[in-house]
Amino acid sequence: MTGTTTPPSSATAVIDHLMSAAFLSQQVALTDLAQHTGLLWRCICSQLNGLHLQACERCEKPRLWTKDHTPHAYGTLLEDLRAALAEWFDDRPKLRRPAAISFGVTLDYDDGPAWDTANPTAYFTDSPNGQEYPDDFAKSRVADALVDIDDFDQPQPHDTLRVVVPPPFTTGTTAAAADEPTSD
Ligand SMILES: [Zn+2]
After folding, report:
1. What SS3 state is found at 105?
2. Are 119 and 104 in contact (CB under 8 A)?
3. Phi/psi class of residue 40: alpha, beta or left (left: φ > 0; alpha: ψ in -120 to 50)?
4. How far from 125 is each of 5, 19, 57, CA to CA, in Å?
5. Which residues are in the CB-under-5-Å shell of ion ligand 1?
6. How many angstroms separate the CA atoms of 113 and 169, rounded?
7. Per-residue model confidence (pLDDT) at position 171
8. How far is the CA of 50 from the centre of ligand 1 (A)?
9. DSSP alpha helices (H): ranges in the chain?
10. Rounded to whole angstroms, how far apart are CA atoms 112 and 150?
11. How many A from CA of 32 to the centre of ligand 1?
12. Is the dihedral angle over the CA atoms 76, 157, 139, 4 positive or is it negative?
């Protein structure tokens, strides 16, 4: 875990400050970048909202993809996976930061089903559907964290593991819900 943590309201305050200093054309660029990097979230109605808001300012629909979905409780192993995902996207600022990533199960290994680093699904707050994520997490800290979860509790072939990706600078103060098995 890195030491510094920043509450989501700070990101909103920084963006508000930058927006009030910016010319109109700069404001367009700033809002594009802010949602791209996960410092604002876009609702399915297209409204941009601050990270401190759990419901849309305009249509009041709840923010999507704020809960983990796991077959079992994994405790700190899930937090290790979350931190690894945060690091992955921190290191790749040109990629649009998703609200959550989910993994399926591969049967390609001799020792049984395992969480698959390939073919993950990315979820964004402006869509109720996931989309194929083009990168493979093989040989990354994400893969290591998935192996640790395999070792703790081997998945079943049709299990899904969906993990909330924290916004930048907030690792350690994640807004994710409790680590409970969930069915939604
Ligand atoms: Zn909305």
Report:
1. strand
2. yes
3. beta
4. 23, 22, 14
5. 43, 45, 47, 56, 58-59
6. 34
7. 63
8. 12
9. 8-21, 24-36, 76-90, 141-152
10. 10
11. 17
12. negative
Domain coordinates in residue numbering, the chain: 8-50, 76-164
As a whole number of angstroms, the distance between CA 119 and CA 134 comes to: 7
Can you tell me the distance from the alpha carbon of 58 to that of 49, in angstroms, rounded to the nearest whole number? Answer: 9
For 109-148, the pLDDT digits (tens) are 999 999 999 999 999 999 999 999 999 999 999 999 999 9
Token pair belonging to 166:
């924290």
Say how far apart CA 172 and CA 184 lie, in whole Å: 24
Structure confidence at residue 20 as a pLDDT band (50, 70, 90): very high
- The alpha carbon of 36 and the centre of ligand 1 are apart by a number of angstroms equal to 17
Name 42's bridge partners. 48
> Cα angle at 17 between 14 and 20, to 5 degrees?
150
